[in-house]
Design brief:
eight-stranded mixed β-sheet; Rossmann fold; binds ligand PMT; elongated; single chain; alpha/beta
């Protein structure tokens, strides 16, 4: 269950495409995340997939007919149009795009689309030539100009045997786009956020490295929350286990040296810098060109310190820029975090406890405190990374407000 989707009413419009069966997975994931999914199938969609599948998955009646539901206020089109938080049309056929662009209202879905003020997200799926056709492209341009949103299509082999753009984009990407649209708080619109995320791998030889257990979950949650609030997001990411949001610009790096180079190349353009990466403090001074061979003797490696990225950013920071760091410690967390806040001249540090099953590394939760200069630490207790990042950006927004920027 995610707080972004909890109790949100989402109309899932399914239209006539071979990809209609994939809408079952979308309905299932949205329901799992806590959304109230209202499935609506066009006549053509019902040639590919049965309404009963959606009813079983969502536990709600599937809407199929503009006239049938008049007796049922739950699915009456104007009532649904008013209470929906989002219209997600997936798959969106060339036909529904054309109808929506022209304002044609000849079935439940196209009629309700005209009546809603909720954000509308189309996930197109069709033959590549149909997608590339000037009529379809003109319809997409019209809908974009009117404020509709699009995710995908993906590229690849299509059901018709052709290759090109036209595949329904993967479900996680659709969910992510929906999650971004569901946020009402757009207090970072026009702001640029730069985040370091994940681990760094410091080579020992061509096959071995010194690394750590950062999964990238914290960086992903930060990037998603910043996108939800309307920011433009760039992530300098070391190796990680989870993918970053599709809508973020990602700069992939491996070592601390690569991470500092990418960060310093982009930080001047950022309004907010967040150092969430677990950067290796040391690297091997002379990594071997060839794989070390085992010969029974001890292997001594000389380690030299890596540059401190957060400190380097603070050294060149503009007065209005907000810099945020993280501290993950096994003991004396608050004392160490306080010291890092001062030493790295940060505006905010998020202290998270390492140890136990809710340990900061790799977990979905953290025991966290927020610390700002001159104020007592704010304890958040055990919190999901999703909730934590919401609190972090609330704090950042309040810092920005006090600076009147
Ligand atoms: O990726 P996850 O599995 O979700 O885990 C998230 C996390 C535990 C990695 C994250 O929440 C976290 O706490 N990151 C900081 C880890 C840490 O202990 O950092 P540090 O104490 O070594 O450094 C303090 C701060 O300076 C951090 O903001 C760090 O990014 C930054 N730093 C550190 C060293 C260095 N050479 N350059 C830096 O910028």
């Amino acid at each position: 269950m995610s707080i972004a989707f909890a109790d949100k009413q989402i109309v899932l419009g399914v239209t006539g495409s071979i990809a209609a069966y994939k809408a079952c997975e979308i309905a299932s994931r949205l329901t799992e995340e806590g959304a109230v999914v209202i499935p609506a199938l066009t006549r053509a969609a019902r040639e590919f997939v049965a309404p009963l599948s959606f009813e079983a998955i969502t536990g709600r009646p599937a809407i199929t007919d503009i006239f049938a539901p008049i007796a049922n206020p739950e699915i009456e089109h104007i009532a649904v149009a008013r209470r929906a938080h989002l219209f997600l049309i997936a798959p969106a056929s060339a036909n529904i795009l054309a109808k929506a662009a022209c304002g044609i209202a000849d079935d439940w879905l196209s009629t309700t689309l005209l009546a809603t003020h909720a954000p509308v997200l189309f996930a197109p799926a069709m033959n590549a030539a149909m997608y590339a056709h000037p009529a379809t492209q003109a319809n997409i341009a019209t809908l974009l100009a009117r404020g509709a949103h699009f995710v995908g299509p993906g590229e690849g082999r299509l059901a018709c045997g052709e290759t090109g753009p036209g595949r329904l984009i993967e479900t996680p990407v659709i969910l992510e786009a929906a999650c971004i649209l569901l946020s009402g708080k757009k207090d970072l619109a026009g702001r640029r956020v730069l985040i370091t995320s994940g681990a760094t791998h410091e080579p020992i030889d061509p096959v071995r490295f010194i690394g750590n257990r950062s999964s990238g979950k914290m960086g992903r949650a930060l990037a998603l929350e910043a996108l939800r609030r309307g920011a433009e997001v760039t992530v300098v990411s070391g190796p990680a286990r989870v993918p970053l949001p599709h809508a973020a610009k990602v700069l992939s790096v491996r070592t601390a040296q690569e991470m500092i180079e990418a960060t310093l190349a982009h930080v001047d353009a950022a309004d907010i810098f967040i150092a969430a990466a677990a950067v290796a403090d040391y690297r091997v001074e002379h990594p071997a060109d060839e794989k070390h061979k085992r010969n029974g003797d001890a292997l001594n490696l000389t380690l030299c310190p890596n540059p401190d990225i957060a400190a380097a950013v603070s050294a060149r920071k503009r007065p209005e820029q907000v810099t945020v760091g993280f501290a993950a410690e096994t003991h004396d967390l608050l004392a160490y975090a306080q010291r890092k806040l001062e030493k790295k001249k940060l505006d905010l540090i998020v202290a998270n406890q390492v140890g136990g099953e809710n340990c900061a590394f790799g977990a979905d939760t953290a025991w966290a405190w927020l610390i700002t200069p001159g104020a007592p630490p704010e304890q958040l207790h055990l919190i999901t990374k999703e909730e934590l990042t919401e609190r972090v950006f609330d704090k950042i927004a309040s810092i920005l407000r006090t600076r009147n920027t």
